[in-house]
Amino acid sequence: MDVVNDNEEHGAVIEHAPLEPQQIEPALEPVLFAIKRLEEVVERETQLLLDGETIDLAEINSHKSRGLRDFNKAMNKAAKTAGIPALKSLQPVLDALRQKLDRNCDAIKLHLRAVTELTGLIRDALETQEADGTYTVQQMRNGQGA
Question: What is the pTM of this model?
């Protein structure tokens, strides 16, 4: 793992020293691999959302689900074989993942707000288009136009 310098946009920078190969207990290698894969998926989704790119949410969610499953399996196995100090050494890596997930959550919220606003604009335009000027579509739906 490298030094993490993510989330500069939010003014916070988390840095953690890389785990040296001699420090990594073999039982933790699958956990670190799973975390790295999760980080890659989350960072990719975050960047696509922030760039306004087209995103296949089903594909991204599938990758996230697979990554989470792999992480859980690796953690369960590591918890049975690795010692407490080894598991605690994962904390900086987990903190960095958490920060990336928080940034991803913010990007998703921003995207959903934009979609909601766009949906409202389209709905309003359609209602205006359908109205003949006498009654609004909302009034007709409420039974006030007949």
Answer: 0.69
